[in-house]
């Protein structure tokens, strides 16, 4: 089972919602392994995390750690940022496939514009795209797509107040372009229109 948490913009709360679901599953008796959380641009200490007998943190450190997780036989593995690269030739989506092939469910996050089919639509609208994309087979083959929706005005307010990212990302030209009102409204419209063709989408509205 593959469940993808996505949104039209960074900072909407995809990873938070993913972790919240993982913790709920652990409280219901599922064995959960936290394998990768991206800490580059967020304070991961604010994520919902509960230490209990069903939650294990086992960071990815190459092929050996992937095999170790498979041997643990968890019900669920959490892989933040599906499109990120670990190692020279391996992406997290490759890792996700390894777990799924071994009957381990994967909860993951990725911005919608990361996907190969959607990226050109975003790029044509604003001129900003992603160099490294996620193959279409992942979003097309997902068992559930969870879309985190939030009004652009709220996203802009939090961005300007420095609530979403560290200094490096706040000073990024591309990130500032992303959080212009017209850009966010365009991205949101593109995302909702694109997802209409899927019947496995669940929308979470955030205030």
TrEMBL record:
Keyword Transferase: yes
Record keywords: Kinase, Transferase, Two-component regulatory system
Signal transduction histidine kinase osmosensitive K+ channel sensor N-terminal domain residues: 2-193
PANTHER family with a match to the protein in the record: SENSOR PROTEIN KDPD (PTHR45569)
Protein name (record): Signal transduction histidine kinase osmosensitive K+ channel sensor N-terminal domain-containing protein
